[in-house]
Amino acid sequence: MPYLPEPSFTHGTPEKTGILLVNLGTPDAPTTPAVRTYLKEFLGDPRVVEMPRAIWWLILNGIILNTRPKKSAAKYASIWLKEGSPLRVYTEKQAALLQGYLGERAQAPFVVDYAMRYGNPSIPAVLRKLREQNCQRILVVPMYPQYAASTTATVTDIVYGELQKMRNTPALRTIKHFHDHSGYIKALAGNINDYWMKNGRPEKLVMSFHGLPRKSLDQGDPYHCECQKTGRLLAWELGLKPEQYAVTFQSRFGRAEWLQPYTGATLKELGKQKLKRMDIVCPGFVADCLETLEEIAQEGKETFQHAGGGEYHYIPCINDRNDWMHALTDLVIDNLQGWLVKPDAAELEQGRLRALEMGAPK
């Protein structure tokens, strides 16, 4: 297999460290064609849907991609911002803020950028962009607090696959998870407390995480356990008693059993109990997206109130909060130990001169 062309190089150029934030992805526009393209890539990933490829290909291309894109496009349109997809807008802000926050604490040259696992900007495109900036060390930060094979692992699949195409590969580090990171937990709690200070407190707080097929837990995926730990630590930080909160799982797809309790069923039951007010938050998402703004904020409210419930409050994700950005900066610095070394200008110049003497073009 031929390698990708190497970026132009000038001797004496300081090496940089790249920090790449990666989130799930989004269509380029809230339109049926754009959503179809996005879903084809997303649902075509064998880590996302674990079933025989031939059977799933028929289901995906024969049914899902002919029926779901139009419905999903309407849902995306209902939450689309003037700047674009909420997930992409907030992830871009997080990358820009991290560049600034990290710059206050690091003397060595570095670059922060972001990519989407599915859609644009793609991981391969941004990795090549970092290489062109002479990033010889890259820290990949999947923005999933809880590890799952269908999220975090699929990011590293693509990253390692891209490195296989390079002749001169950079040093690589990845962050597996941060579900119990103290800064992340405190940012979640701070976000909820700020909301309660302005809007009062509920009778019950529901913490909704994205669901996975039950078999993923049975086969050794730690996701369920990490969600439960996040919920427990968050409840402790908020001072909640067990009866004051619930951990649930949303976004069930297909007929197989998924992680329980299901968010939809829980909301319906709480509505039947005539709960006067419940609040819901999504601690598995660090940026608002379709699953939070449409599925939880809109559909969840309808489910709860249609069943007889009272007030329903969706608490937004931590997005670009100051405390979360400080926590993310701490997380990144912890994983950059030994990499943020200020280059020696004199040593670089001596190396450049030696290279020129030995016949290097530049």
UniProtKB/TrEMBL annotation:
Family affiliation: Belongs to the ferrochelatase family.
EC number(s) from the headed UniProt entry: 4.98.1.1
PROSITE patterns: FERROCHELATASE (PS00534)
Species name: Ferrigenium kumadai
Record-level GO BP terms: heme biosynthetic process
This protein's name: Ferrochelatase
Biochemical pathway: Porphyrin-containing compound metabolism; protoheme biosynthesis; protoheme from protoporphyrin-IX: step 1/1
Catalysis performed (reactions): Fe-coproporphyrin III + 2 H(+) = coproporphyrin III + Fe(2+); heme b + 2 H(+) = protoporphyrin IX + Fe(2+)
Ligase recorded as keyword: no
Gene name of the record: hemH
